[in-house]
Specification:
122 residues, mainly alpha, 5 helices
């Protein structure tokens, strides 16, 4: 019984720290604000897979570009990262316009703004 009580006390003491650490370790593109903006688009079941593919490709290409710029010791690192993020976002926009209908384009622009803001704060 004493062992169970000790485990319970330790769990209660450690659980808040674990929750905070888990929230802080989430990638920038998976924050509550970005997720809420994505849900606000109101994607249909047939749109989920192409939307996910577009966002995944954007994030993969962005991550690779940032790693490449860092590896080459770019003197204007932040400028080139920002420029690449905007360029890749335009490519993602073009792909998304083929997927989204007219009513979803304004919420998508909100999602895009929140996503790019989250990525710029990394």
């Amino acid at each position: 019984m004493r062992y169970l009580l000790t485990c319970l006390v330790v769990l209660v003491a450690v659980l808040p720290a674990m929750i905070i650490a888990a929230e802080q370790s989430r990638p920038a593109w998976m924050t509550d604000e970005v997720t809420a903006a994505a849900l606000a688009i109101g994607l249909g079941p047939e749109q989920l897979q192409p939307f996910g593919t577009c966002v995944s490709e954007f994030l993969a290409e962005y991550g690779e570009a940032v790693r490449r710029l860092i590896r080459h010791n770019d003197p204007d690192l932040q400028f080139h990262i920002d420029r690449k993020r905007k360029s890749l976002a335009r490519d993602m926009d073009a792909a998304m316009m083929e997927i989204l209908n007219e009513e979803q384009r304004v919420p998508y622009q909100d999602y895009r703004r929140v996503l790019l803001a989250a990525l710029s704060n990394i």
